Request: fold
Amino acid sequence: MNLNFEDFQKSNVNLKELNNIRVKNFKKFATQGFPTKKQEHWKYTDLKNIIYNNFKNLQIFKNEEISKYDKKLLIKDFEHNKIILLNGRFIESDFSFEDKKKITIKSLKNAFNDKKDFEKIKEYFTDDQNSMISLNHALVSDGIILEIDENYSFTEPLIIYNFFDKASDNKIINNKVFITLGNKSRLSLVDFYKCENNIKYFNNTIHNYTINKNAILKKFNINATLDNSYNYNSTKVKSYSDSIFENFLLSLGPNLIKNEIHCNLLENYSSCFINGVMFLNGDQHHELKTNVNHKYENCKSSQIIKSALLDESSGTYQGKIYVDKSAQKTNGYQLSKALILSEKSEFNSKPELEIYADDVKCSHGSTTGNIDENSVFYLMSRGLSKDKANKMIVEGFLNEAIETITEPNIKLLITRLFNERISETKL
Amino acid sequence: MLEINNLSATIDGKKILKNFDLEIKPGEVHAIMGPNGSGKSTLANVLSGRKGYEIDGKVYYEGKDLLEIPIEERAQKGIFLAFQYPTEIPGVNTNNFLKTSLNTVRKFRGLKELDSLEFLKLVKEKSKNLKIQEKILSRQLNVGFSGGEKKKNEILQMTILEPKLVILDETDSGLDIDALRIVSDGVNSLRNKNRSFLIITHYQRLLDYIKPDFVHVLVNGKIVKTGSSDLAQELEKDGYEGVEAAR
Reply:
């Protein structure tokens, strides 16, 4: 694999400070290479191997290749604001349901040449053991900076469309998203992924969210349609007092997703809820890694992850709850349940609790099993075919996670996408 | 309706049913009584198609070889088994399940499928007749249901699906008097000249409410005695050992 960094540098001349960051981080990446299963956090996703096996000659995406997105891909019958990213590049935004004065949106590409803007995000270009982060710092080409004013609640959800077209074929795309919610503001955000048929790309993206006092961010990752893409997403969240972060992940579509969510509960009474569904077939490989850090007293966190695996697919959930010694009265909960629906599918689960405070309530559970034959028999004895009986049981099983969604409209959307996917699958 | 000839069933190397014979004609109600381990539930399992048994002999349902018919088609063709232990299925809504089941059966019978409104109307009417609280239908299938609720749910399914042959597998076990009455009212309301019942039970109690045409005593995998409903009273008095001793 030979990523041509010099070529990339020539076409991305930014602030000197950023250029130095890029050089430093690319060096770091070049020494480490893509992560392998020898690294603890990548034990279940041997990225180096996956890239080697699936990309002959992966190239850095060139930002100047501009194309138009297909408007037919937008979600219909669902009122929403939108931000369009095409091949990681910020194309346009539409906040027609909102008071635009309360919202600031900037392209990251522009911020890279603006000293004042860059100053605000500079701190996020930190050194990291994870070479994918170094790679992202080195090669980030675009993305967005979104800021919501204090006391402003969005009327309708915001969908960030992550579209990919043929220009992204065989490319690695690195982008970043920064979102800051001011005190007492509210936003429901859908991160929606869709690519053109038969396009194979690698998307390496980092999201940074800051949720200030009493603010509520509800975030939904939707990867619903089967495609040929490879994705690594690292989300870092800073939660301040009395704030709420909810994240639901619908993980159905791409060949590979590794989602990492690091949530830092930094002040009193902040909370974090991460729930999700994985429904995989073929040789899909999806991993979710959550890292909830209770850094302060009285915070609450919960994760409910439900997975069902067919064919030769594999899924992984690594969930860590860390409780700092000062984080008394922490309430933490974690549950992962997986159904293995074929002999060759697998699910790996690694729950971790690291607790240094003495007055906390933390529990976790993890089960992996087969479909209950008695349940199948019961449904079949009422006339349902085996396929239908299996579907009903799997749907019911996964629904327990979908039921946790607190936004009715988005719940309907997710249920619809999930039903479409499960109905086209043979069980 | 149902003809069982020389049926044997073996599980884990153990022969449970031994050369079992039984004939049920349309409209008849047969009760099978027997002590623990006599093969009552095995009979219900074999008829409904549960896997795991080595089977010998013949079973004809409406003249067709029942053992060759897949499980779901048995249901579609009108066989209904009320389970001794109805399975709890988390996440599956009772109403949705029931609607899917009914429409599958209706489709098979060449009837129009019911839409949600028509279905709800039907369920409302049937559950009212059975004095079943409708709210259990919006819950997950059998999850957290009391023993009585589970059995009532089975009976409701039976009245909605309108089968031709009903097999009740110890439906009376664990029921209080009120629930027992609801269950037997459900059965009695469905009795007609075309529909047959096979009631498997441990105690004579249920037969006070549902008068069978025939009572069979099953001991050790075989019917050892057949009589009218009076036989049930005798059994209650003398026990299964009494019947055996009389032989």
